[in-house]
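User: Please predict structures.

Assistant: First:
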Amino acid sequence: MASLTPELEEARKQIEKIASSEGLDFFETIFEIVTYDELNQIAAKGGFPVRYPHWRFGMEYERLSKGYEFGLSKIYELVINTNPCYAYLMEGNEFLDQKLVMAHVYGHCDFFKNNQWFAPTNRKMIDEMANHATRIRRYMDRYGVEEVEDFIDKCLSIDNLIDIYSPYSKQKTPWPKEEKKSFPQQEEVESPFKVTREYMESFIKPPQKMEGSMESSSSNPKRFPEKPERDVMSFLMHYAPLEEWQQDVLSIIREEAYYFAPQGMTKIMNEGWASYWHSKLMTEKIMNDSEIIDFADRHSGTMAMAPGGFNPYKVGIELLRDIERRWNKGQFGKEWEECTDLRERENWDRKLGKGREKLFQVRRVYNDVMFIDEFLTEEFCVQNKMFVYQFNKRTGRFEINTKDFKAIKAKLLFQLTNFGNPI
C-alpha cells in the first residue's frame, strides 16, 4: 500500500471540497493506492486487510484474480464503513478513473454516515476484525486448524439466520443466565397436597392418577422458546451444548453478519446514491472537456443492464433521478395521483424545486424495501424496461412473462425482503 501521489492528493482535496459544497457530509476518508493483487486480496476479505483464516477467502481471491487476469472483471472502487472511512485505488488506473472513484467513494461515505440503517454499526470494525482473527488463530493453535475451520463452516452455513431488524428495536429482555446452554427438561408433575409421612404417599399420590398426569403433561409439553426466535445464532449461543471456544467463534460470525447486514439492506440505494453523485460531480465540476468520452465509456459500462437482469447501480441512480424530477415538478401528492388526464400529467410542473431536499431525506431514512415500495412507479418500469422475465426452454432465451406493474413490484420486493431468504 502507498499514499496518494501529489497529483492525486490535489485532485482528492478538490473533489472533497466540491462534494462538501453540494451538501455531502462524510467521515474523514483515507485513500490508499494498492496493486491489483493487493486489491483482490482485500476485496476477497470483504474490504478488510485482516480477517480470520478461512478457505472461502482464498476461493474468492482466486475468482477475483482470474477475472482480472482474463479481462472479465475489474474492481474500480472499494470503500469500507468505518470512521475514518478507508478506500482503495488501484495502482495503474488512469487519472480519470481515480477521480471518478474518489467522487463515487465520497457518495458512499456520506451514505454510511447519514443513513439510519447504518447507525448501529461498529465504526471501528477494522480493529474488531483484527481482534476476531487473533482469537480464531489462538483457537486453531489450541484445538487444531481442521476442527476450528470445520466449526466455522457450520457457523457460516447459518449466518443468514439473524434478526436484521433487531438492532433498531428496543433492547430485548436478556437471556436468563440460569437457562444458558440448557434446554428445559420435562417438569415433574406435582401434587397439590404436600406429603409429610411416607406411609401416606400411596393415599395422597395414587400411582394411577400420577401416571395419568404424567401422560397429560408429556402430551402437552411446555413450548420452548415461548415465542418464535428469528435470531437463531443468538439462540444457539445461549442454549446449544457448545464449548466456550465454539460459543466465542459463533459470536464472532454473528457479530460480523450484523455488521454487513445494512449493506445488503441498502445495496440499491447505496450504489445509486454514490453513482448519482459521481455522475453529477464529474460532469458538472470535476472533469475537463478531454475526459468526457472516456468518462461516458466508464459510466455506461457500470450502468449497463441486460434484459432480464438487475443492476443496482442503474436502478438506484435512475430512481433517485426520477424522485428529484418528480419533487421538483410537484408530481406527487393527492392532486397528482387523482389526475387522469395524460396530457396534463405529461406537462405537469408546479416548479416546487424540492427535489434535492427530498433526495437527502430519502438517503437518511429509507432502505431498499422501503425505497422500492414507495417510489417505484408504473411509468418508471416502462421507461426502464423493468418486466418479469421467464426462461423459455424451447427458444433457449429469457422472454417477457408479464408487464403487469403489481407483479413486477411484488417480485422485486419479494427478492429484497430479508435478502430473499424465508422469514
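Second:
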Amino acid sequence: MARDFTKDESERASSEFLIDENFPRKKTKRWSQRPFRHFCIVLGLLVGVFELVVLETFFVHISWQSKSPSALGELNALVPNFPIHPVLFRHDPMATIGRNDENSRNATQENWLSYIPRGNGFIAVNNAEKYTLPDPIPFRGKSAYSIAVFHQIHCLHAIMNVFNELTRPASKHARDSDRGHDGHMDSHAHRHIDHCFRYLRQSLVCCGDTALEGQDPNTKAAGTDGTGAVHMCRDFDGIRAWAEEHRIVDTKHL
C-alpha cells in the first residue's frame, strides 16, 4: 500500500506549529531578561541622581568659597581679599626713638606715618544698612568706616607716644598737652590708652599668628625677640594703596 506523504507532512506541520496545551513548551530566556533590564535601568537612574547631587554640592561649595571672607578679611566682601606673602621679621631701628631728641622723634614719626594712607584708612559705604556692619560714622553726609589695621597702628603709636613722654626729662613734661600741671596724664588721654590696650589685645587674639620664633640673636640667655622668624602676612602695601584709592579725605595723621 502506497504511503501518503502529503498527509504525513500535513500532520507533522500541525504538530510543530499548532499550539498544543498538552505539549510542554521549551522555555525561553526572555522572561529572565526583563527583571535584569529593569534593574539596570533603575541602577542607572540612581547613579545619575547621585552624580547630580555630587556636582551640585561641589558647585555650591565653590560658590560659597568664592563669596566667603578670607581670614582677617571683611565679612561683607566690601574690601577685597589681598594675597599672602612670607615676610622675614627683622630689627627695625626706625620704629622707635633712638635718641631722646627732636631729630630722632621726627624721623620716627615720619616712619610711622609712612604706614598710613591718605585719608587715614577711612572709606565710605553706600547703603550700609544692607550689610552686617556696626553703625556708621557720620562724616560730611556719608557713612564712614575705618579699616581696622590703620586703627590698630594708630593705637600702637598712641601707646608709644605716652611711653616716650614718660621717659622725657621732667622739665619738658609741662609742654605736653596730654598732661596736667602735676605731670599726670589727663582723663581723656588715659581713657584713650585704656581703649588701645583693650582693642589691640582683641586684634592680636583675632589674628592668631602662629609663626614659630627662635632664639634672640642679641643675647645668650634663652628667649626670643621674634627676629628671624618668617610670618605669613597679607599684602600690606596693597591694603594701604586700596585704602588710599577709596579715601574720603586727603589728609593723613596719626
